[in-house]
Amino acid sequence: MRALATVAALVGLLVGCTADPGAAPAAGGASAGPSAARPTAAERTTVRIASLRGPTTMGLVALMDDAAHGRARHDYQVTVHGTADEVLPLLLQGQVDVALLPANLAAVLRARTVGTPAAVQVAAINTLGVLHVVEVGDTVTTLADLRGRTVYSTGKGATPQWVLEHLLAVHGLDPAADLTVQYLSEPTEVAARLAAEPGAVAVLPEPYVTVVTSQVPGARAALDLTDVWADVEPASPLVTGVVVVRAQFAQEHAAAFDELLADYADSTAFTNEHPDEAGELVAAAGIVPDAAVATAAIPGSHVTYVDGPAMRTALAGYYGVLRDADPAAVGGALPDDDFYYGADD
């Protein structure tokens, strides 16, 4: 009965991370964000931004708060959605100008739109890896400790599977023979297995890691797969999320878009430097349903801002690993040079 009660509590707390799409509510009261006056080189421009409910939006919340309270130097109109499938049609139809998307999906979208009016470019990395190995117990210190175990995960046919299988192979494990990886449809299902099964092991993203480790007795984050990846792929960091822009918008509003990127970089710095205040904004925006969970999840979410040549180097290496695992993961081939906005500066 206690395990069932814990599962129910987990599902209730986590449901906000997969909620229905909609406009992000503004945080109330005075802004906690970096709202100091900034010089504006461009004419005030409306920038329609679509984001996803989860870690990829944590670095955006101070900018969102400034925009909601009329302090932003441009008219940033942000909507937060439940899945990338809801955002793609908006980009393709020109209904949004900028989107925060999974890194591999940006490459797939580029392959589908290059040479068309809907062509996109990637302008920045906003999130490194968010995946962790979580166990109820104290038996996992390296991936080699997963031999003979059953590991629960989500993301079959997507980034979690490609990342996990690549790292297992590097550590000498065949996921088809040396262990069992059981893919479930939602992170909440994985969290429920951890709560119900003593000794269970799973791969989970933030903020689910924080919720599980705070709610399930004996649960701990055993391995941060971003760190594991860095050990075996030092030239190509594990990347989760990126900022994508319609190439036509970037060309027609270059100065305003560059100012957006600068404002976003400031917003990301605020999230990392002031996690308590950022956690309040994350909860107010509906990204994570609880401010304390949001604050605790920020360090493990690896919120970042990387643009220019460094972005290109990191993404090109990461895309190369994904292509070797499954060419469809990046749209069939590596993106062309023009995909990387500002990488030649």
The side-by-side strand order for the widest beta sheet comes to 1-3-2-4-11-5-12
Please, what is the oligomeric state?
single chain
Q: Roughly how many Å apart are the termini?
A: 60 Å
Structural class of the secondary structure composition?
A: alpha/beta
Low-confidence stretches at least 5 residues in length (pLDDT < 50)?
A: 1-9, 18-32
Helix content: 40-55%
Mind summarizing the main beta sheet?
7 strands, mixed
The DSSP helix count reads 13
Overall shape: it is globular
Mean pLDDT: 88
Residues in β-strands, percent: 15-25%
What is the succession of H and E elements? HEEHEHEHEEEHEHEHEHEHHHHEH
What value does the Rg take, in angstroms? 20 Å
Total strands: the figure is: 12
Tell me what the structure shows.
The chain has 345 residues and is α/β, with parallel strands linked by helices. Helices cover 42% and strands 19% of the residues. The chain has helices at residues 2-14, 61-68, 84-92, 103-113, 159-170, 187-196, 208-215, 225-232, 247-252, 254-273, 275-284, 291-301, 308-325; strands at residues 22-23, 46-52, 75-81, 98-102, 120-128, 131-136, 150-153, 180-183, 201-205, 219-224, 239-246, 303-306. The strands form 2 sheets. The chain has a 7-stranded mixed β-sheet with strand order 1-3-2-4-11-5-12, sandwiched between helices. Strands 8-7-9-6-10 form a 5-stranded mixed β-sheet, sandwiched between helices. Helix 6 (187-196) packs parallel to helix 7.
